[in-house]
Design a protein that fits this description.
- It is a single chain.
- This protein has 140 residues and is α/β, with parallel strands linked by helices.
- It has a single domain, classed as Rossmann fold.
- Helices cover 52% and strands 13% of the residues.
- It has eight helices and five strands; from the N terminus they run βααβααβααββαα.
- Strands 3-2-1-4-5 form a five-stranded parallel sheet.
- The longest helix has 13 residues.
- It starts with a strand and ends with a helix.
Length: 140
Amino acid sequence: MKVLFVEDVLLDVIRAKERNNDTLFLLNCCEDHLISGYVSTYSLIMILKQFDYPTDDHILKIMSNLLEIIEIKTKDIRKATQDEYFWKGFYSCLINRYGFDYIVSRHKIGFNHSKIELIDPKELRKLIENGKTDKQRRNL
């Protein structure tokens, strides 16, 4: 399963809002190769803007080792600006290039028109714990 993490859920880990949170569980799944996790360079920049150096340095290093960092190309931005909904176009470009199964975020705003399902970390955790794959879930 390939998932794209949006900065809001990764910032939760850095800020330690919830010590035993679902995003931490998902990052552990990435470490155990149960899922493939990705983060865009855009999300990484947004994280760094709120970064408390050196306090958060070790957490960022862990994330960068667990998640594949994907480059946003100029053609992705240009294609996205042609879409009626910029974020739909932007994430569609990434989805088409990488074939993600889910976008992991708590915020549904901006993703209303996404071609793939936006999923809350808690929902994805339940799917993984219940051994549900994307195909099995669609057949429920």
